[in-house]
Design brief:
heterodimer; A: 463 residues; mainly alpha; two-stranded antiparallel ribbon; 19 helices; 78% helix; 1% strand; globular; B: 486 residues; two-stranded antiparallel sheet; 2 strands
């Protein structure tokens, strides 16, 4: 909770920076603030949890704190990556404030306990993202991305709101614990429109995590937005949306699981197939990463499916988000640096193995991690998913996941092959700023460390 | 401790080699791999004197909550495979002395990492650890083939990688399935013995599913017909040293895996599907031999001959009797050495004449008599003439397959005849006949090349004449395997 407050404070501070002229100090201040937020978050982890605030509107239990930790840590890396990106822009402070408020929304989503907080969180997170997606004002594609994101996002929000209203009508409460109790008490005579409400919320959440067939906005938005904003979308926003998804359905609607598990399993299957095959056909690395993020979304949704009955090992999803966020930050950071000189097409990576061996090595690790090859973090993430899935009745999804993983290896390897095998006409070195290369190296090392000693992380999330 | 050293030492060596430049990297890698060989000899001696010695086992907890241990140990089968690996890696490095590779330090570093992963695969006693090493072995060889391979290497290595990854993922699911059925005082366990017990507790149809999930991974790695399509292109296009690693050692991961990680887990599954698998193996023998006969490219011919040999090994293993499995172990060793020798000879020919097309070669014997003799010895070893190392294994294998079924043995036995046809014919094409203009200057061998060939030939003859030391270990190991089957 203190983390949430600190980051809200930082957002307001950022807006003041223009007036009181401490723009130069802003980045250090934000970084210090984020570290402080992380520290408080960590202390709450140590000192006990489950404290609820504002009439149980928001509650930081262990799961919320774990997700918040991932989000705060990712954003820390992100701000370092983005430092020079902001400097080019005249509206520096606006961007800082927008990103920070998006973070506030993300943190709320991890800890909501009430449908209103859920809606608030989603809107607080999404509205700044709409603006940020369009933040390259003169670029047609960026404008398109922002516009598309806004329309689609509003559409999903409308669904969400409608769903909330229907469920409120049926149960008489916004509180997810009370809804849960009501469902189990009145399981036999829930009105039809309650189920409609659940399905509408499911659709809205699938929009937000960009699972097929509600994914059509994602590739265009990811491609059109500035690379670093895409990085933010595919890490922080995605993690938060998942945390919300999981809490809503595993806590709130666990007792009506037969209403939504069937739909969700079809969504997962479609996401796996569409995302992987589409990703394999992309020539733009950014678009490829966008589709691959849909496939990772499907993996995380599988864990939700697997845990419906048992509700025990959500640590799989936490580990997966962590591994995926770190790998993505590295991949997008590299893409950002390579893209500045050569564009985002896969040919921009040609010969990177010679032009900047260190960057190529880091990209290799990131790609191997996203593809799930040992001994990277991504491998254990996949392994945890497999192990939670194998005891369930969704073995067909597991087989599908394996088949599509092999397709996944195809497009990740394409980048590696381009870096080491394809020749580049120009022998231009790829310059990387010190702070950027620091982030890339640190996240690469983390990817391997978490892969070698997964116990350290896995043990942390046991409860 | 010794086990951990065997796995850890190549890794440390590799990390050092990555930071050395030029020829020093090569020499350093050779030195380290010889030290590794010495360590494995020490392990062999210890194993001989006391197979249950504590120093041969290591068991550290890796991920407590999931029962994953870094657990590795030496037994009869694994010491044979480790010896093969540690014996061949120095030779492979030595064989590269006449090739020049750009960024040699990376090349040799990757090779040592590969050795680490291979030794890890052979020693792992924990299902999860086995899988990790299994996958880890893929990465260095992928980069070796991609960075230093021949033309069109991008597409070919890619097919290789995706194909094997695909199989491995199925194996992972099979292993996880078994893991989920383990029960050691209420906890799940990855230990190999617990996985055996879990597998045996399954019903016949469950065991069949597990059998196929795991078998496909091994079948792709070996490869067995019809999972072999990645292999010829990959072997031909990889740099010679990469091909040697692939064919001489990495292929044995599949056959080794079948003996240790498949047979004892699914006896009922084997009962049901063993015949099909043997059928595939034998089909592969005949099929690959026939294609080998039609090959003009010498390296591709060896690649196909390798499919034929490994088909026989697999059939022997699946026949589930003493002779079959023991023969498979012996043949795994012999094939490793012989195929290494053959690929090395192909490399020498390529370096000196610039061609691997057998029609364009000829009459080399008259230019270099020593080379002709050494080449002939390797050829004889690989067609399994008595008193060469190939004979023991092949004899036992055919004997084992015969006990399984006489007709199967007839078809499997074709490998001997067809093998003789294509090997002797290729020798005749390359070494005998008229001298061709393209290689008029086939001078004497370089000393490093000569050394490697002499060592190989010495091993071929020594273990053909006196196979007892290895055979004794294989016999004991087979007995343990068979007792695990019950």
């Amino acid at each position: 909770m203190k983390g949430l407050l600190i980051i809200s404070g930082l957002g307001i501070l950022a807006m003041l920076a223009e007036i009181f002229k401490f723009k130069k100090l802003l980045l250090p201040l934000v970084l210090i603030g984020i570290v402080a937020a992380y520290a408080f978050n960590f202390m709450e982890w140590r000192n006990g949890f489950g404290i609820s605030y504002f009439d149980n509107m928001i509650a930081f239990d262990k799961m919320a704190i774990a997700f918040s930790g991932i989000i705060i840590a990712t954003s820390f890396f992100w701000f370092i990556l983005a430092n020079d990106y902001f400097e080019e822009d005249s509206n520096l402070v606006d961007h800082f404030a927008l990103v920070l408020f998006a973070l506030v929304g993300a943190l709320m989503l991890t800890a909501f306990n009430n449908m209103t907080t859920l809606f608030l969180g989603i809107e607080i997170m999404s509205i700044p993202m709409y603006v940020l997606a369009a933040s390259k004002k003169k670029d047609m594609k960026s404008n398109e991305a922002g516009f598309k994101y806004l329309i689609m996002g509003s559409f999903a929000s409308a669904f969400l709101l409608f769903g909330i209203a229907l469920i409120y009508g049926a149960t008489g409460s916004f509180d997810i614990m009370q809804i849960r109790t009501y469902i189990s008490a009145n399981a036999d005579h829930l009105p039809m429109f309650f189920y409609v409400g659940v399905v509408m919320m499911l659709i809205a959440m699938c929009f937000k995590v960009s699972a097929a067939p509600f994914h059509f906005w994602a590739p265009d938005v990811y491609e059109g937005s500035p690379t670093l904003i895409t990085a933010l979308m595919s890490t922080v926003v995605k993690t938060a949306a998942f945390a919300a998804f999981m809490r809503l359905f595993l806590v709130g609607f666990a007792n009506v699981s037969e209403t939504w598990t069937g739909i969700l399993s079809v969504v997962v299957a479609l996401s796996l197939i569409i995302a992987n095959f589409s990703a394999a056909m992309q020539s733009s690395v950014k678009r490829m990463l966008a589709y691959s993020s849909i496939s990772h979304a499907a993996f995380m949704l599988m864990v939700i499916l697997a845990n419906v009955r048992s509700n025990i090992s959500v640590d799989a999803i936490i580990y997966y988000s962590l591994a995926y966020s770190i790998g993505s930050i590295a991949a997008f950071g590299i893409l950002y640096n390579v893209g500045r000189s050569g564009g985002e097409d896969i040919s921009a990576f040609n010969g990177l193995g010679k032009r900047n061996p260190l960057l190529a090595l880091c990209m290799t690790v990131a790609m191997l991690s996203l593809a799930g090859i040992p001994i990277t973090a991504g491998f254990f993430a996949k392994y945890f998913v497999f192990i939670t899935m194998i005891g369930t009745s969704y073995k067909w999804l597991l087989i599908l996941a394996i088949l599509t993983s092999a397709v996944g290896a195809y497009y990740y390897l394409k980048v590696i092959i381009a870096m080491y095998f394809k020749e580049q006409d120009s022998e231009l070195a790829v310059p990387v700023e010190k702070s950027n290369s620091l982030v890339i190296i640190v996240t690469t090392i983390l990817t391997i460390v978490i892969g070698v000693v997964p116990g350290f992380v896995a043990e942390m999330f046991k409860y | 401790m010794l086990t951990a050293l065997l796995i850890g030492f190549p890794l440390l060596a590799a990390l050092l080699v990555f930071f050395v430049r030029g020829n020093a990297a090569r020499n350093l890698a050779l030195g380290f791999s010889i030290i590794e060989f010495v360590i494995s000899i020490v392990a062999l001696l210890q194993f001989k004197s006391n197979p249950d010695a504590a120093s041969l086992k290591v068991d550290w907890t890796w991920v407590q909550s999931m029962g994953i241990h870094f657990s590795a140990g030496i037994d009869g089968l694994s010491i044979l495979m480790v010896l093969l690996t540690t014996f061949l890696v120095p030779l492979i490095i030595l064989s590269s002395f006449k090739n020049t590779y750009s960024n040699a330090h990376n090349f040799y570093g990757l090779m040592l990492i590969m050795q680490m992963a291979l030794v890890g695969v052979f020693l792992a006693n924990d299902g999860f650890l086995f899988y990790v090493f299994w996958e880890l072995a893929l990465i260095p060889i992928y980069f070796i083939s991609l960075l230093w391979g021949g033309e069109n290497r991008g597409a070919i290595t890619f097919k290789f990688f995706v194909y094997t990854l695909f199989g491995s993922l199925f194996m992972l699911i099979g292993l996880i399935y078994l893991y989920n059925h383990t029960n050691v005082e209420g906890l799940k366990s990855w230990a190999v013995q617990d996985l055996y017990a879990a597998g045996k507790s399954l019903t016949a149809s469950q065991q069949s599913a597990v059998f196929w999930l795991i078998f496909i991974a091994f079948a792709i790695k070996m490869p067995i017909f019809p999972f072999h399509t990645w292999q010829p292109d990959t072997y031909v296009n990889a740099p010679t040293q990469g091909t040697m690693l692939l064919s001489a050692i990495m292929l044995k991961m599949g056959t080794f895996g079948m003996i240790k990680w498949l047979l004892p887990m699914v006896p009922l599954g084997l009962e049901k599907w063993g015949a099909t698998a043997i059928g595939l193996s034998v089909t592969g023998i005949v099929y690959a031999s026939c294609i080998a006969i039609a090959q003009k490219d010498f390296k591709r011919l060896i690649a196909y001959s390798s499919i034929a040999h490994v088909g026989l090994i697999s059939a022997g293993i699946l026949s589930l009797n003493q002779q079959g499995i023991q023969g498979a172990m012996m043949q795994m060793l012999a094939h490793g050495v012989n195929v290494f020798g053959l690929f090395f000879i192909a490399d020498i020919l390529w370096r000196r004449t610039g061609t691997r097309d057998m029609d364009k070669l000829g009459g080399i014997r008259s230019m270099n008599g020593n080379f002709a003799v050494l080449f002939l010895l390797v050829v004889l070893g690989s067609v399994a003439l008595p008193l060469t190392n190939g004979f023991v294994g092949e004899f036992l294998l055919i004997n084992g397959v015969y006990q399984y079924g006489a007709m199967t043995a007839v078809f499997a036995g074709l490998t001997v005849i067809l093998g003789a046809v294509y090997m002797l014919r290729s020798y005749q094409h390359i070494m005998l006949g008229e001298r061709k203009d393209s290689h008029h200057a086939f001078g004497p061998l370089a000393s490093s090349d000569k050394l490697v060939l002499i060592i190989v030939c010495a091993v071929i003859i020594a273990f053909g004449v006196y196979p007892k030391p290895l055979n004794d270990i294989a016999e004991e190991a087979t007995k343990i395997v068979l007792s695990n089957l019950k």
